[in-house]
TrEMBL record:
Keywords: Hydrolase, Metal-binding, Zinc. One of its GO terms (biological process) is nucleobase-containing small molecule metabolic process. The lineage of its organism: Bacteria, Thermotogati, Deinococcota, Deinococci, Deinococcales. This is Cytidine deaminase, homotetrameric. GO terms for molecular function: cytidine deaminase activity; identical protein binding; zinc ion binding.
Amino acid sequence: MFFGANVENASYGLGRCAEQSAVQAMATAGGRDFTDIVVYSEASPPASPCGACRQVLYEFAPDARVVCVNHHGDVVSGHVRDFLPHGFRLEQRDDGHEVGTE
């Protein structure tokens, strides 16, 4: 299990989202993919990953389950593919089919 934290910065582009932070912790520990990610926020409805995070998640685990939950217990869930339709990965064949990143 890996944790991430949202780190705000005055220059928005330099901030780090919790999802990316968790993926970086996983990669630093030698992980290559994951099966589930939980996004917690106090937003109502629950906040979902931003576009940049969706791409990062897709790159590592397009079939992983995403569970977005808030402090009221509201839940929005799906798979990374659901949150980023028509996503792409760094390594793809010429015919558009995905190839693993291993």
